[in-house]
Specification:
four-stranded mixed β-sheet; alpha+beta; elongated; 27% strand; 91 residues
Length: 91
């Protein structure tokens, strides 16, 4: 199955609509989450998360360098301890 790319705002809106309709069991789950760092445009680095090998979500927050993304993730590591080692992310 091909991966579908969605913006952060789009996936949040879809999940909220399903919850409001009482269909939260149909919302994309996070049984498995893979993440990577990618440069969308020069100087526009983003965290990308892939949920269940099906939905790729490009996060809203932009960084000027890959190192800045890794640093931000390291700073938030306590909050997202299950993310693992951010230096092992792929580009």
């Amino acid at each position: 199955m091909p991966v579908v790319r969605k913006s952060h705002d789009q996936i949040v809106a879809e999940i909220e609509a399903l919850i409001q309709a009482g269909r939260e069991d149909e919302a994309p789950g996070a049984k498995s989450v893979c993440r990577r760092i990618m440069e969308l445009a020069p100087g526009d680095w983003r965290v990308v998360m892939i949920f269940d090998d099906a939905i790729e979500v490009v996060c809203n927050r932009s960084f000027s360098s890959r190192e800045e993304v890794v640093k931000a993730i390291e700073d938030e590591q306590g909050e997202y301890a299950d993310w693992g080692d951010p230096t092992r992310m792929t580009q």
